[in-house]
Amino acid sequence: MTVRGTEIVTTQELAGAGRAVVLRVGGEIDLATADAFHDALTAAVADVVGRGLTTLVIDLTGTGFLGSAGLAALVRAHRQTSRSSVESVVVAEADSLVMRALTVTGLHEVLTVADSVEHALGKKSDGVVGSSRTRS
């Protein structure tokens, strides 16, 4: 599936020996593109749940900017996957603007964050930048 917004392109693929969906996002996620990003996330969550898979990987390594509307969409997707017993992992390079947005807002403490899709799929355990924590 490909969704094109003003400055965003998303693609979705099956990965991780058929146990995960990887949603790759390119462009800038801001107020103008947040709806397209939200729609792509919602479709990806529905695909993971519908197939009975265990993991949704949201690859933001091709994303140059992540604004507050995009951060809110990530939180909504995290809530959706948590309710469905699906693990969601956000992929962001350690020195990127996306990772900075996650860190400044504290979302790196709430969401599971990895520095590559390979790490997100569990091929290497040392690539996890942050881990999901349940808050009461």
TrEMBL record:
Family affiliation: Belongs to the anti-sigma-factor antagonist family.
Pfam family, one: STAS
GO molecular function: anti-sigma factor antagonist activity
Stretches assigned to the STAS domain: 21-124
Lineage: Bacteria, Bacillati, Actinomycetota, Actinomycetes, Pseudonocardiales
Protein name from the UniProt record: Anti-sigma factor antagonist
Coiled coil: none
InterPro entries: Anti-sigma_ant, STAS_dom, STAS_dom_sf
